User: Which sequence fits this backbone?
């Protein structure tokens, strides 16, 4: 891809180079995709489980996956490896038990390396961009423009 000629698209490679992020977003939104996300203000979460990263990720992803599987019964879900192989195996089993409803709906859940999946790379970029839109510590004068660029995909 011409905007990332030396490898995979990652939000962390762009960081707070907002002009570059704008250019990349303007190219990325030309692709066919939709954004489904859960944005959470962590300061508003209460409960022992939220102190643990594993529980926090399972809970939030569970909310998202429940809605996705309800809306798209034949969903093929591809996620980036995160937190080591043990965590991903446990997480995959959690999703299978709690969110893939029946064998007849043929939903699938794959764990892939991001450098092999353009969709995962786009998701990484969008997730990082959402941070620059909603996270009070990351917001900037570019935040509204980021939102405007991706708004048709949300």
Assistant:
């Amino acid at each position: 891809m011409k905007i990332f000629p030396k490898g995979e698209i990652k939000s962390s490679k762009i960081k707070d180079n907002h002009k570059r992020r704008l250019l990349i977003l303007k190219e990325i939104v030309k692709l066919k995709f939709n954004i489904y996300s859960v944005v959470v203000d962590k300061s508003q979460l209460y409960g022992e489980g939220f102190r643990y990263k594993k529980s926090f990720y399972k809970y939030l992803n569970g909310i998202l996956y429940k809605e996705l599987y309800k809306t798209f019964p034949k969903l093929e879900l591809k996620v980036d490896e995160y937190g080591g192989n043990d965590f991903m195996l446990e997480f995959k089993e959690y999703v299978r038990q709690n969110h893939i409803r029946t064998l007849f709906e043929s939903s699938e859940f794959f764990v892939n390396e991001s450098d092999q999946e353009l969709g995962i790379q786009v998701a990484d970029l969008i997730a990082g961009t959402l941070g620059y839109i909603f996270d009070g510590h990351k917001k900037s004068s570019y935040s509204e423009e980021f939102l405007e660029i991706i708004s048709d995909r949300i």
Residues 46-153 form one domain. The chain has a mean pLDDT of 85. The longest strand covers residues 76-80.
